Amino acid sequence: MEKPVSQLEVRSKIWLEVDGAPVFGQGREELLRLLQQTGSINAAAKEMGIPYRKAWTYIDAMEKRLGFALVNRLKGGAGGGESTLTPQAVALLEKFDLLQKGFKASVNRKFIKLDF
After folding, report:
1. Domain that residue 81 falls in
2. Which of helix, strand or coil describes residue 90?
């Protein structure tokens, strides 16, 4: 008895670059969304399973390459600090989401049209 042929599916990823250097993609999108949910870079990093220092380095690199702040940081104290996304970061997330949806729909249409 022959094994059934599995259905082919197309997968794609999209990211943004500045001068050939990656600046924003799915991983960094996840970091910002988790930061938005938790109000903490540390909590977002833990949720992703990466060190705080790595998360902070990602944020710092994105801000430098994009040329605008993504995170408002309030230093911790007895009650702890808080981090929030800037309006520009929220807009970036919204636009990236729309870009991904349009991109995936276009790729899926092309895939179907090619009749793999």
Report:
1. 23-114
2. helix
Task: State the DSSP string of 32-57.
Answer: HHHHHHHS-HHHHHHHHT--HHHHHH
Residue 5 included in any domain:
no
Please state the pTM of the whole predicted model. 0.82
Task: Note the pLDDT tens digit of each residue in 20-69.
Answer: 989 999 999 999 999 999 999 999 999 999 999 999 999 999 999 999 99
Whether residue 42 lies inside any domain: the answer is: yes
For residue 80, the surrounding DSSP H or E stretch is none
Phi, psi of 74 (to 5 degrees): -115, 120
Domain count, the chain: 1
Q: Where residue 63 sits, what CATH number does that domain have? A: 1.10.10.10
Is 35 inside any structural domain?
Answer: yes
What is the dihedral angle through the alpha carbons of 81, 63, 94, 74, rounded to the nearest 10 degrees? 10
